[in-house]
């Protein structure tokens, strides 16, 4: 199967005919759409982010001879554009999705582990999330591990740690808030 995205390594986007330009954009669109939609959960916003990402790509395309590096670079641009959007728009939204940051690493691996660059990117994201988790209390880390990594129910967690479901819910809520606080501090959403 011919990769139209690789044509960007040979010459400027504007030098291609209209059909080839459409093919390049469509391939990029299908490459990054699932990843972006998984984060923003809105079709129109996803399309806006894809368009912004694509404009960045065609304005400053590096010259890679390796197809995998080229595709990975496209995904990094799309990911960074998505994170910038989330940072910028979190001020106007009433609440960030606390579970997004906790569940993201597992979801990313399950939906995106088709290629080597996806695996590398997902491992980097997991490492970043692990850093956040290592900065919270050990009780919270244990609960997060039981809930999201082992996928236990509140009832199963309560039985395992000899507590009540209500206390588990309350502590998990505090754990999510603690991770969110670290995330917001790291990404400085007050700019």
UniProtKB/TrEMBL annotation:
It holds the Pfam family Sigma70_r2. SUPFAM superfamilies: Sigma2 domain of RNA polymerase sigma factors, Sigma3 and sigma4 domains of RNA polymerase sigma factors. Residues 25-91, 141-181 form the RNA polymerase sigma-70 region domain. Keywords: DNA-binding, Sigma factor, Transcription, Transcription regulation. The keyword Transcription regulation applies. It comes from the Bacteria. InterPro entries: RNA_pol_sigma-70-like, RNA_pol_sigma-70_dom, RNA_pol_sigma70_ECF_CS, RNA_pol_sigma70_r2, RNA_pol_sigma70_r4, RNA_pol_sigma_r2, RNA_pol_sigma_r3/r4-like, WH-like_DNA-bd_sf. Belongs to the sigma-70 factor family. ECF subfamily. This is RNA polymerase sigma factor. It comes from Bacillus chungangensis.
